[in-house]
Amino acid sequence: MYCLGIGNTSYICKPKVFNDNHMKIGLVLEGGGMRTMFSMGIVDMMQEEGIKVDGIVGVSAGACFGCNYKSHQPGRALRYNIAMKDEPRYMGWRTFLKTGNILGPEFAYHTVPMEIDIFDKETFEKDPTEFHVVCTDIVTGEPVYKQLKTIDYDALEWIRASSSMPLVSTPVPLEGKLLLDGGMTDSIPLKYAQEQGFEKNIVILTQPEEYEKKPSKLPLLFKLFLGKYPKIAETMSRRYLMYNAQKEFIKAEAAKGNAMLIYPDEPLNISRTSQNEADIRRVYESGRRKGTELLTELKSYVESVHVL
Description:
By secondary structure, the chain is an alpha/beta fold.
């Protein structure tokens, strides 16, 4: 079955068959670098309160941090980002000058989860929650989706690809494709989640409800650095149209009762690559406050879906 995506994006998908009768609920996590600490405050609170979903679709930092839900490790994303804030191999311009990546491709995505703040691979694999990541094929300019059932070197590379911001990251080669940040082509993948069988979804955004993306101020840089991949350069020039169309789509789905949308109340005022501990904690705590405020509504939404 060919499924039309939002705006100019598209993807191939197949109907999903479930063996049980209850409706499936998904969790869709927008990216945004350290803005996504807002989402983690909510997700950690959900875990602590025993709020369970059937699947997660994460984009960029939403994938990188959101995997901790399936591994049952609330607080881990906050913990290691603060612990690594002064580590030059983790993130920063020194890392970029050395590797071509603002986040150290080997240290941040492999050494940290496997050796320093250990990711619970066994729990991730045993937990039945589906976990999907969104990347972008820079040759075709189309989104690429991958369900991760285990955490091995390649799976961590899929997470790295989903999180690799254009201009400050090198493409990640996987399965014959060259991949970068999924947010370039499917920033809020509610449509994809629905096509995977998640009929109701909690969607956590990292920008306020009234936010509208503007045309990029860096079109020449995109053409300069991505010029050998004209389709992705063109996609980046239209990204604001895709994003704003997705915002309208998710609002329409919420009005139908198909989605519960959670936004920060105001701009989070943190850079994507911030290493400022006070700002990281502030954004995380704002997410926890928002989650606490919506706790009754969240529980009711999930319970109403799972009893259908």
